[in-house]
């Protein structure tokens, strides 16, 4: 067996372990009895520990070196696969095992403290834990940065989005920082003239909501032979290769958020279900990174499923499922509900227009923390000042401020920017897709997503990790990731620019 | 760290991997989308392969030898734990890795062929696969027998029930073979005088059946903080340490089998939930073996929950859940339904009285196959002859004969006897329990299982694998496993012997 073939076997094994962890993680958030949490943590830690041991074993380094020396005989996908193997190995071996363990334990403790702190809106409960987590994250950033030749924050970014760098983000986020306040103000003035959309009211039984969600998942192209829809406190897309499981949560008095959440997670799931079939067990068969992953969820949720076209498909579906309460929601009303702009404190509740402000703030703060320019003790004040600055809101307490997200307590520094970069990519991809495939927009009104999904499959999903995010974007849209399409999309949808009256 | 302590760490890791596999196996039978089967098989094979590698690693043998040389410093539980570690290692290391893999693949292929063969009632479809599986099972039996100093069939038995030997089984099964036909005939004549119990008829909505099942699980003592009840095609008790999951299946027109299935699996689950808390991650904390495991399910299902006392508790529960259809079933009718004797072709549908005949037949056949005295080609004929002999039934086709069970295609030779040994142990334990705790029988009528569960916890569950099956039986009942109590139980329940008129 060649060194490369031996590596393929090793990584298939790692994939199987990762998939096992994926199902166990899904179960923990959906069905697991409460008393089983400690045992499940042990199972997941064991799987992760074994995976790490296999990946950083001396034999793996030897195989990588040998395979790289014989790389001339590999085809393009194999060569890309080998690059991704090297990348995974570099990340894993850059950090000493005891630091991995210490960081993992600190994050677990901080997540538990965070739940308590948020419930009590008491930052002091979280503070010492977050200080630990930040210290370890900075150490990890330094260690990986040294190994990869990157600045610490770039090394952290690279964990979630291979190749993503601060220098790539800053120009886009700087432009947004300049333009966003005016856009939000103008959008709100325009909507104020029309008045607020009517409140959604009625009885929307959970079983009917679920049926609508499943029906729309099928409409979008979700394959239920290789996935499920379930319920969890925090919606997510998880599971395993060939077994992609999304979740939502239901409120019997208002289906709107739950339903859009299903469409969002379905976008993630379609990416997973569309990964290149021949490479499913290999790193090159992975989704490229969190920017493109979020682009797929937001392309479905924001670009495709908040269009007037889709509302024409959605309205009769809702009328069929919810009777008179559903029929009250005509396409125009649905569109107004689903594009209503209203600044608020909570990121996950934010509308499309104000959402980037939440990310800009977190990006600034986490860079400053990683760079050592912002102490954890000063986080609440800095957070609140940023909210005032960006959205004009006075944060009433830390639960509505810097305690709202689990990311930092969980150790995920470098993740937040991918939300808005995903929105940016979604706009660029949807623009290119609709230009290339004239059947896409009319299809949305007919509940025919095949033209859209076909384009995404060919131009994004089936690419796996064979190229960088920018290479995939450029091949799909003619240019690397940039904010022009996103800016145009927001101005069109919220200011009416470039739309025929 | 001492060698013993290092072994505890290793076995805790193996337990975590086994628990992960337990949840993944549960998921595969309850929720997994059909297209995910191949990926799941890969995940499970990877977990098993890694566990096997860790267990048979040279360092493990070194640690065992070192720990055994220092065993004088261990307390009784640690010493028993070390014995169990050695046992696990001996079983695992006796079989070369390629044989493990070959056997596993042959079993997977045979299980798939079996589904097809059973559906078509065509033994020819299974035959070549079963020949492969049997060949590998015989090889495994020889290899383990050599390593453990046992005959091949004893080595196979030992996999499922440590310490169980053919010489221990034969006297009990020989007696049953002699007595059972007369017992069945006499029981049927006695029941014929009373006429058949009325057919169960009515509407028994699945949701209500599920609620009854959960309520009775709580009554028996099941802890829903550490377990679940779900639905699967084939009922089972699975899951993980501290996360014990049982399943049943429902028929809307007849709740009786499903409900008794829940009580059976609850018996298994209570054993798992009652394992010694301080040793949950260690081999000595395991349930002792399949005989005692089945004894716990059958003690609940057959001994406790088919008594006249329990029927007095059950009848009003059913009336509350199913209205008039439930109220039609008074305690006496329920008791007649649940103790009705009727020979049939299918083992899993058999009543308590005829069930052992199915096991005696399988025991004879599998010993003969393992010993090389019965060729797979001759299995159908031998099976049918045995059914005629033991139950007087003419098997109409192989689906109702030798194709009905998955055990042999799955490679489980040496498992069947534990079903009847479990019934034997259940009778002996229940007799001892009710003699020791006068509150047990009245408790059954009140839905108060605490006296019974308390006795089982102390005398069986909390013993884990600290002693052999016979040691646990002797400590609990005053004598090793034997059929006296079982015989007396059957004669009492089905012939009315020793029961006040």
UniProtKB/TrEMBL annotation, chains A, B:
One of its GO terms (biological process) is proteolysis. It comes from the Bacteria. Its cofactor is Zn(2+). Binds 1 zinc ion per subunit. The keyword Zinc applies. The keyword Hydrolase applies. It catalyses: Release of a C-terminal amino acid with broad specificity, except for -Pro. Zn(2+) binds at residues 264, 268, 294. Its EC number is 3.4.17.19. The active site is at residue 265. One of its GO terms (molecular function) is metal ion binding. Broad specificity carboxypetidase that releases amino acids sequentially from the C-terminus, including neutral, aromatic, polar and basic residues. This is Metal-dependent carboxypeptidase. It comes from Lichenibacterium minor.
């Amino acid at each position: 067996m060649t060194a490369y073939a031996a590596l393929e076997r090793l990584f298939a094994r790692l994939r199987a372990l990762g998939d096992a962890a994926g199902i166990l993680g899904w179960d923990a958030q959906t069905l697991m009895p409460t008393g089983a949490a400690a045992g499940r943590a042990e199972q997941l830690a064991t799987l992760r520990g074994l995976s790490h041991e296999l990946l950083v074993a001396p034999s793996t380094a030897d195989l990588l070196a040998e395979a790289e020396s014989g790389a001339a005989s590999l085809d393009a996908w194999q060569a890309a696969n080998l690059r991704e193997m090297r990348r995974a190995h570099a990340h894993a071996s850059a950090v000493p095992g005891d630091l991995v363990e210490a960081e993992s334990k600190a994050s677990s403790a901080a997540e538990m403290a965070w739940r308590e702190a948020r419930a009590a809106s008491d930052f002091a409960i979280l503070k010492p834990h977050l200080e630990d987590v930040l210290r370890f994250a900075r150490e990890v950033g330094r260690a990986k940065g040294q190994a990869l030749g990157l600045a610490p924050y770039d090394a952290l970014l690279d964990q979630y989005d291979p190749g993503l760098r601060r220098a790539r983000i800053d120009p886009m986020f700087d432009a947004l920082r300049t333009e966003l306040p005016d856009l939000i103000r103008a959008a709100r003035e325009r909507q104020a003239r029309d008045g607020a959309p009517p409140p959604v009211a009625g009885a929307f039984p959970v079983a009917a909501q679920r049926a609508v969600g499943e029906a729309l998942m099928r409409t979008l192209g979700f394959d239920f032979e290789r996935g499920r829809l379930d319920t969890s406190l925090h919606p997510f897309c998880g599971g395993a290769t060939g077994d992609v499981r999304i979740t939502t949560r239901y409120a019997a008095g208002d289906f709107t958020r739950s339903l859009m959440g299903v469409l969002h997670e379905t976008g993630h799931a379609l990416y997973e279900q569309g990964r290149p079939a021949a490479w499913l067990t290999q790193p090159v068969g992975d989704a490229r990174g969190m920017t493109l992953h979020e682009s797929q969820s937001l392309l479905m949720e924001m670009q495709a499923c908040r269009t007037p076209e889709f509302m024409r498909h959605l309205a009769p579906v809702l009328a069929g499922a919810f009777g008179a309460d559903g029929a009250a929601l005509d396409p125009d009303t649905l569109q107004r509900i689903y594009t209503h702009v209203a600044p608020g404190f909570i990121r996950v509740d934010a509308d499309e227009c104000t959402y980037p402000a939440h990310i800009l703030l977190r990006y600034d703060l986490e860079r400053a923390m990683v760079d050592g320019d912002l102490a954890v003790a000063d986080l609440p004040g800095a957070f609140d000042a940023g909210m005032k600055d960006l959205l004009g809101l006075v944060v009433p307490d830390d639960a509505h401020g810097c305690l709202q997200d689990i990311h930092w307590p969980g150790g995920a520094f470098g993740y937040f920017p991918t939300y808005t970069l995903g929105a940016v990519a979604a706009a660029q991809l949807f623009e290119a897709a609709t230009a290339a495939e004239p059947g896409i927009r009319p299809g949305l009104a007919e509940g025919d997503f095949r033209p859209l999904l076909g384009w995404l499959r060919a131009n994004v999903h089936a690419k796996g990790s064979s190229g960088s995010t920018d290479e995939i974007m450029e091949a799909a849209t003619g240019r690397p990731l940039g904010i022009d399409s996103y800016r145009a999309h927001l101005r069109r949808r919220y200011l009416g620019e470039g739309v025929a009256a």
